[in-house]
Write a structure and sequence with these properties.
This protein is α/β, with parallel strands linked by helices. The protein has one domain: 3 Solenoid (UDP N-Acetylglucosamine Acyltransferase, domain 1), CATH 2.160.10. Helices cover about 30% and strands about 20% of the residues. It contains four helices and 15 strands. Strand 14 (about 175) and strand 15 form a beta hairpin. The protein is globular and about 45 Å long. Belongs to the transferase hexapeptide repeat family.
Length: about 190
């Protein structure tokens, strides 16, 4: 999983638009997608709020980041904490009800569907405490899936719709069920290739 790198805003927007085209077969064009896709609006707002969140030299920047993030949540129905770390070419399809917690880490080329939760269990508090999932590169999280706690979802995995995951998932797995169980991927799960 790559580390966040500062890139130009236009390059990032182009990558996000390309991710929307790859992740959604109904995507009609960049202009329409930029105007109507709430997932794109949420990730673009997150990218702004994350910069504010990490700008420790600006007094009050974390407060401003949270206020902007909550305003975006009201408009998009998607809540992304500004402290989360999200990689490149991230796409949220249909988006409503997505929640991404403060210490979540999401790799590159990840696709989320509506109702996904990357939540914590509570308990660990304070600076540096990891409470939310780490999601590897090229992972697809199905509608309504819940990843709970400081777990890791290995790269190239698929989490099925409405699956609840509370334990680490090895790379290249398909996870289904409540409490999700992992099995090796066969490569025929009908997942969009990114």
């Amino acid at each position: 999983m790559s580390r966040p790198v500062r890139r130009g805003v236009l390059r990032t927007v182009r990558e996000d638009l390309a991710a929307a085209r790859r992740g959604d077969p109904a995507a009609r064009g960049d202009l329409e997608n930029a105007i109507v896709y709430s997932g794109l609006h949420a990730i673009w707002t997150y990218r702004l709020t994350h910069r504010l969140w990490t700008a420790s030299s600006l007094p009050g920047s974390r407060f401003v980041a949270r206020v902007i993030g909550q305003a975006a949540r009201s408009v998009t129905g998607i809540e992304i904490h500004p402290g989360a770390r999200i990689g490149r070419r991230f796409f949220i399809d249909h988006g409503m009800g997505v929640v991404i917690g403060a210490t979540a880490v999401i790799g590159d080329d990840v696709v989320l569907f509506h109702g996904v939760t990357l939540g914590g269990r509570g308990g660990d508090h304070g600076p540096g405490a990891r409470r939310h999932p780490v999601v590897g590169d090229r992972v697809v999280l199905g509608a309504g899936s819940s990843l709970i706690g400081a777990i890791t979802i290995g790269q190239d995995s698929v989490v099925g719709a409405n699956t609840v995951v509370t334990k680490d998932v090895p790379a290249g797995s398909v996870v289904t069920g409540v409490a999700g169980t992992a099995r090796p991927r066969s490569g025929h799960e009908g997942v969009p290739t990114l």
